[in-house]
Amino acid sequence: MTLRRLLDEQLSPLIATELRNEGYDAVSVHALNLAGQPDPIVFGIAPKEGRVVVTQDFDFNALQQLSRLSSEGVILLRANQPSTKTLLALLRRFLREHGETSMRGRVASVGSTTRFHPSL
After folding, report:
1. Cα separation, 115 vs 1, whole angstroms
2. Residue 38 — φ and ψ, nearest 5°?
3. How far is CA 105 from the centre of its chain?
4. Distance between CA 50 and CA 94 in Å, rounded?
5. Is 116 strand, coil or helix?
6. Long-range contacts: 101-106, Cβ < 8 Å, 24+?
7. What angle do CA 117, 35, 58 make, to 5 degrees?
8. Considering 18, 61, 64, 111, which has the largest number of Cβ atoms within 10 A of its Cβ?
9. Quick one: average pLDDT of 5-11?
10. Is the pLDDT of residue 120 over 60?
11. According to the model, what pLDDT value does residue 70 have?
C-alpha cells in the first residue's frame, strides 16, 4: 500500500511537487483549494482521502491527540530554521528511513531524530 500525503498550508507547494517528481503521492492543501481553512477542516479531509498529514503546525498534533477520529496519521516536521530546503530534506530523510511504514493512528515527530507517538 502506498502512503498518500497531504501537506499543510505552511509548507511550500514546491515540496509536494518535488515529492511527486520522486514518485511519492503528495498533494498540497493549496492544490485542493483548502489554504486558509481551519485546521479541523483540513484535518477532516485527510482521512477521507486516506492521506497522512504533513505539517509544522503543533495544533494538528493537539487535534489528533484530542480527537477520537480514525486518522491516517501525522508527520510533524520540526526545524529551527524551517526553510523549504530544510523541510524537504527532513521529509526526504523520513521517507528514506521509514518509507511506507504505516502511520495510522500515530504521530511522527521529525527533527534531528524521529520519534513515533500514538495519537490517542
Report:
1. 22
2. -60, 150
3. 13
4. 19
5. strand
6. 102/3, 102/73, 103/3, 103/52, 103/72, 103/73, 103/74, 103/75, 104/70, 104/71, 104/72, 104/73, 105/70, 105/71, 105/73, 106/73, 106/74
7. 25
8. 64
9. 93
10. no
11. 44
- List, in order, residues 6 or more apart from 35 with CB less than 8 Å away: 9, 29
Comparing 69 with 82, the larger pLDDT belongs to 82
Q: State residue 74 phi and psi, 5-degree precision.
A: -135, 135
In this prediction the pTM is 0.88
pLDDT one-digit tens code per residue, 9-30: 999 999 999 999 999 999 999 9
For residue 27, give the 3-state DSSP assignment: strand
Residue 16 CB coordination number (10 Å): 22
In this prediction, residues 47-69 reach a mean pLDDT of 71
Q: Which amino acid is at 98?
A: H
90 pLDDT tier (thresholds 50, 70, 90): very high
Which residue has 531524530 as its cell numbers? 113
117/15 Cα distance (integer angstroms): 24
